[in-house]
Amino acid sequence: MTNFQFLHTGDIHLDSPLKGLAGQDGPAADLIRTATRQAFSNLVDLAIAEEVAFVVIAGDLYDGDWRDYQTGLFFVRQMGRLAQAGIPVYLIWGNHDAESQITKRLNLPDNVKVFSSRKPQTLTLDGLKVAIHGQSFKQRDVTDNLVTAYPAPIAGCFNIGVLHTGLGGMGGHANYAPCSMDDLINKGYDYWALAHVHQGQVLHERPHVVFCGNLQGRHIRETGPKGACVVSVRDGAVDNIATIRCSVVHWARLNVAADKAHHFNDLIDAIRDAITRTVAADDGGQLLACRIQITGRTSLHAQLPGTIEQLTAEARAAALGLGEAAAWIERIAIDTEPELDRSHAVRADALGDLQKIVEDAASDGQVTAQIEAALGDLIRKLPHDLRAELESGALMDAATGDYKSLIERAGRDLLAQLEAEGA
Question: Half-sphere exposure (CA, 13 Å, Cβ side) for 363?
């Protein structure tokens, strides 16, 4: 068999709006608005540069019905680039771009082959001895297991199955075209090119069952770099799968601890530091779309909800200070707690310790120096005001050696005072 490589992609969602752009402008916002197009253009660049034999798109090229024909025209233009490079494209429709979802259609270049939605279909590349099997979605909610009707593998060919599936509802995705891993493995194909689950992953090897992941993250639940798979085939078997980065915007969560922030400016400094560190650590140079999560116990807790607008503006100013296309702040989320009342905590601990000392003394007729030492440790743990009130009486009784009466009286007095303090 001929050695070759092909590109497996899906979940492109052309012209899908990225979240959180309302009321924002500037180069970063403009880049985010066109991110899915730029990611797809990057994909085509890589396909041409890598000289892949063909491209497989496993569904959800589009995000739903087009607002106008510009979405379709952009896709046709990119396919024309692949046609000039002699690269064919094999495409199925998924739940977002099912035949019933897209009311507008354009004729596609001859290098683009779209699989039928009526039944599974096999297309062959005779020069490479490759057979590609697939079926498009006719409507959004496909609840049948399509795999059972896929054709048997063609002997002497490298067989690829193309499927848009939830594979049992992985990752919380809707379980469209449900099937099991055994269904895929037992089909006898060499490679399953899957899409719908947006997290790229190799689920099985020999045969290979692969989700390519989506091409561009669109919200905070899709963090990190995104891309597609370049699959190398040697001697009729998968030799290597390389993930290529295509995304132009990376979503990231920034956790900012507010525990040490005693003033508003302390928190602004912590936010600025978190943005700067995250940008410096990103080795790809892509724009970072950030959600900042403020956590921890802080004395600022009560006032933070009323300062979100100012905090957001300060965070965006810090991001702009690193360059217009370094970082973009989606929003700030407050997840703090009030600072603990330390004196209350000390009183509560002291109460528990005292109860144990009194119980030990009551159950043991011999009051030892160990109990005296324990009482001394307890008194030293108390807040200053309570300690001052107790020490004079404690020392007087200690001088007489009447430790039992000391403990009992101190117990009663201290319990009453702690309760009065609200411990």
Answer: 6
